[in-house]
Amino acid sequence: MTAPLCVFPDAATLAETLADEAEALLTDAIATRGGASLALPGGRTPSPFLIALGKRAVEWAKVTATLVDDRWLPPDSPDSNAATLRATLLAAAPAIRFVPLFNGAPTPEAGEAACAATLRVLASPFDLVVTGMGEDGHVASLFPDAPDLASALDGPSPCRALRSPSAPHPRLSLTLPRLLDSRRIVVLITGAAKRAVLERAQEDGPVAELPVRGILRQTRTPAAVFWSPA
Ligand SMILES: O=C1O[C@H](COP(=O)(O)O)[C@@H](O)[C@H](O)[C@H]1O
Predict the structure, then answer these.
(1) For the chain, which end, N or C, has fewer CB atoms within 10 Å of the first or last residue's CB respectively?
(2) pTM of this prediction?
(3) Residues 101, 129: Cα–Cα separation, whole Å
């Protein structure tokens, strides 16, 4: 595995340590380039980190944030990743320029081209990408059982509409090349089940079987896995 595994005693320590690193990266980007950009995960695991990050003294008006993926749902849906971000980081730091993935089109397939156009005008590379991982090895919404996965693991588009028979809601996800178009990428996971998946991902096998391998194996972007037991 090229990405080191950083083990923390608990989720709170993990969250504070990652918030420290994110604060330093954003502060440096603002000082060096006048602005900073990051892409953030949905799901349940990242909330302590997003809350911790919101308490940091960053010049938030100079920060642009988007999501690594979202469920194709209106932003007030409780299952929307944008709703989670609004309830955590954006509640504490409303000056952030938030660029949602959901754009109101009836399906992610219908919204994909407009979303790709929006993403293409964002800064490249991101200063930081944080992604979660599911127990099937998916990162962002790169699900192993999504029929269109191959086109999201490779290819020029920054985002893809994806549907997984095992996941609720159709999705819009950053593609693997866009996720890796970052100065730093961190996979944020907790629990024994995900640690076991991570160990399986270190074995030989295709990226399409466990998409997290696409982050662990690459050498383009400095990567790490942050894990705590709970
Ligand atoms: O559906 C999703 O799941 C993954 C993992 O979520 P978690 O609740 O197990 O942490 C998440 O990283 C992704 O952004 C989300 O859309």
Answers:
(1) C
(2) 0.98
(3) 15
Give the helix/strand (H/E) hosting 201: helix 192-201
Could you list the residue range(s) of the whole structural domain that residue 92 is in? 5-228
Specify the number of domains making up the chain: 1
The answer, yes or no, to whether any atom of ligand 1 lies below 6 A from the CB of 121, is no
Torsion sign, CA atoms 90, 92, 96, 97: positive
Q: Is the CB of 168 under 6 A from ligand 1?
A: no
Question: Is residue 20 within 8 Å of residue 49, measured between CB atoms?
Answer: no
To test the pocket of ligand 1, the residue of 38, 80, 81 to mutate (highest count of ligand atoms within 8 Å of its CB) is 81
Determine if ligand 1 sits within 6 Å of the CB of residue 211. Answer: no
- Per DSSP, 186 falls in state E
- Residues 34, 60, 177, CA angle at the centre, nearest 5°? 70
What does the pLDDT look like over 98-147, one tens digit per residue? 999 999 999 999 999 999 999 999 989 999 999 999 999 999 999 999 99
Of all protein residues, the one whose alpha carbon is nearest to atom 14 of ligand 1 is: 42
- Cis link prior to 125 (omega < 30° from 0)? yes
Q: Are 175 and 148 in contact (CB under 8 A)?
A: no
d(CA 134, CA 211): 10
- Whichever domain contains 27, its CATH number is 3.40.50.1360
